[in-house]
Every structure is written in structure tokens, then in C-alpha cells.
Specification:
Bound molecules: NADP nicotinamide-adenine-dinucleotide phosphate
Radius of gyration: 19 Å
Number of strands: 12
Amino acid sequence: MKRYGLIGYPLSHSFSQRYFTEKFQREGITDCTYSNFSLASINELPAVLADPELRGLNVTIPYKQQVLPFLTAMSPVVESIGACNCIRIDGASRVGHNTDVVGFERSLVKKLGSHHQQALVLGTGGASKAVEWVLDQLGIVYRMVSRSPRPDTGDLGYDDLEPGLVACYTLIVNTTPVGMYPKVDDYPPLPYEALGPRHYLYDLVYNPERTQFLQRGAARGAVVENGHEMLVLQAEESWRIWQERA
Ligand SMILES: NC(=O)c1ccc[n+]([C@@H]2O[C@H](COP(=O)([O-])OP(=O)(O)OC[C@H]3O[C@@H](n4cnc5c(N)ncnc54)[C@H](OP(=O)(O)O)[C@@H]3O)[C@@H](O)[C@H]2O)c1
């Protein structure tokens, strides 16, 4: 049996386990299993890695950075952004990848127009690093928006988001958990009246399907997308990496 799984904490409702279990059933894959490993501390990881049948892991909050010392090699993206969400395991070899980057890029570009040249990225946590990397690759100029912007970084605060400024930044990516179930009435404090049909609002949140952030953008005619497709694409990219010939 080839074993795969997800490490994180807490893992109350994991998209990945359901996704891979259904995928294995759908595609008649009978020699693989996918489990949740809810680890209260990263120090519990060696016990998981000791399983000789383990072939790959996904990594989620809060371990995307803490897992780096356990890798024997990393992809250039992981080296650059310092976050890993996928590990390929071959015996003693543990290579770290970041498939959030692939998932976000492939999903984002589907609705991206040539006029989406300037972006605001809301939030400065783990997921924002993958978003920054993709925007850099696509040559899109961006400003980070934080609740506590450090003066030396050039990041904006939410109070800086005047309508005139928001009108110019036609791509806005929410990487904060604001609006996520169960707090579905919350939304990032933006001057939504400044949005229009040239705007593209991308929310990494996927539950609910349409957050208040996306609803308010759509009401102004903006193009909108949630994080569900990104989630599916990152899972499929993980699978591709695990199945690649050595
Ligand atoms: N669709 C996908 O495939 C996918 C992949 C990864 C993550 N996600 C989602 O993306 C979201 C963020 O994940 P993450 O790993 O980056 O989380 P995180 O490390 O906790 O960071 C989120 C950032 O959002 C900001 N933030 C947090 N709480 C906030 C609040 N109450 N109001 C305003 N800003 C707040 C903070 O930035 P500041 O302190 O600078 O304001 C924080 O650093 C989660 O909802 C996660 O489920 C989706």
C-alpha cells in the first residue's frame, strides 16, 4: 500500500482527505490511502515519517514553515518563499514543493485581463507568500495591505485605501480568513463603491462559495473568483509530483 496524508493542526474538516479518497474511488486507485495526521507539535512528525509505506504529505497550517528542517531538498519556489505544502518521499529523500503557487496561478490567470497590471494583496500571512510569488512571475505590480503595516516595508494599512487608490488597483486578492465560515457576514474594510467592471476580486477563501467580499465586488460589476479551484489544482499538482518518475 502507498500511503499519503495531510499534516496540520487542528484538522477538523480536511478538504484534502475527502478529495483524495473520492479521487481514489473514482479512478479505481486501490493501492493508495490518504490519511489525516493531526499533530499537536511538529516534534510528532518523525513518528509519521517512520512509516516505510509513506510516499507523500501535504502540509497545512501551522506547519508550512516549520516543516522545512525535515526536508532533504526543496524546490526553488520553497527556497524562495520559505513555505512548503507538499512533500515527496522516496526512502530517505524528502523533497519539499509548494503547490499553492501552481494552484493559485492556474486559477487566477483564467479571468485575468491585460488591464490587471496593479494589485492589492490583503493579508501578510503564509498564503500571501505564494500569491506574491505568482504576481512577481506574472509581472503584476502589487502592494500588500496589513492591519499593522510596518513603515519600512511600503505596505498599506486599511485606512490608506482611499477610493481613488482602489480604483487604480484593478486586481484585489484576499489572503485573509475574513468572511470565512462561520463568520460569513465579515468582509475586508474596503471602499467598495470604488470598484467597477474592470476590477477582478480573487478570494482564497472557498467556504462560503461567495464571501461578502466577492458579493460586494460582483454587485459593482467586478469579475470574481473564490479559492475552490485553487484548492483542487494544488491537490492535483501534489498528486502529479508524487507520481512523477524519480
Ligand atoms: N484556496 C486555497 O487553496 C487556499 C490555500 C491556502 C490558504 N487558503 C486560505 O487563505 C486564508 C489565509 O491562510 P494563511 O495560511 O495565509 O493564514 P494566516 O497565516 O493566518 O494569515 C492570514 C493573514 O490575514 C490577516 N488576517 C488574519 N486575521 C485577520 C482579521 N481578523 N482581519 C484582517 N486581517 C486578518 C493577517 O495579516 P495582517 O496581520 O498583515 O493583517 C494574517 O497574517 C485562509 O482562509 C485559508 O483557508 C486557501
